[in-house]
Specification:
The chain has a two-stranded antiparallel sheet with strand order 1-4. It has helices spanning 2-14, 16-24, 27-39, 71-74, 109-126, and strands spanning 46-49, 54-56, 59-61, 66-69, 131-132, 138-139, 149-151, 154-155. Helix content is 33%, strand content 13%. It is an alpha+beta fold and 173 residues long. The protein contains five helices and eight strands, in the order αααββββααββββ.
């Protein structure tokens, strides 16, 4: 979730039009989750060991071979998504594999969605003027199949003390 939110804050710094729309229409925040996940899939895929000889996509695989299931690539499939590298707040959500699928679907996917909604809602309500220092962003050097950032520094105007805010999902309930 941290990687997804960092990517989200970077995009909202680069695209103030999207930020302003999310501030003006907070109901779009939860709806935007799938588009952010599709575009910024934190876990790129999983590796598996082939259990029996088979042919997959015209490639001969032998028992014991290692194969990477790159489900993040499916989130950018131009046959499924027009301009797949572009963030579109109004893109109609489609099923995606950013969390894997079937019995390999991420167990925490619903919790990640809730964390995203609460965090983005809170940031846009409490510190809407945040600005990521894009020149100082440092992605992880190498974390295998997970993307992320070593640092995403930002500046913002501090707000007053925080109390329960009924406009933020999960606060005060």
């Amino acid at each position: 979730t941290g990687s997804l939110l960092a990517s989200c804050f970077i995009l909202l710094t680069e695209r103030p039009d999207i930020r302003e729309r999310l501030i003006a229409e907070p109901s779009l925040i939860l709806q935007s989750f799938d588009e952010f996940m599709r575009l910024f899939t934190p876990t790129q895929g999983l590796c598996r060991t082939v259990t029996r000889d088979t042919v997959l996509g015209g490639q001969q695989l032998r028992r014991g071979d290692r194969a990477m299931l790159c489900f993040a690539a499916s989130c950018r499939d131009p046959r499924e998504y027009e301009n797949p590298g572009e963030f579109r707040l109004d893109r109609k959500p489609k099923p995606h594999f950013a969390f894997g699928g079937g019995n390999h679907r991420c167990l925490g996917s619903l919790f990640a969605k809730l964390e995203f909604e609460i965090t983005l809602t809170t940031v846009l309500r409490r510190i809407p003027d945040f600005a990521v220092d894009l020149d100082a962003v440092q992605p992880f050097d190498n974390v295998g199949v997970v993307t992320g950032y070593r640092q995403v520094p930002a500046k913002f105007t501090p707000a007053g003390s925080v109390e329960a805010d009924p406009g933020i999902p999960g606060w005060g309930s």
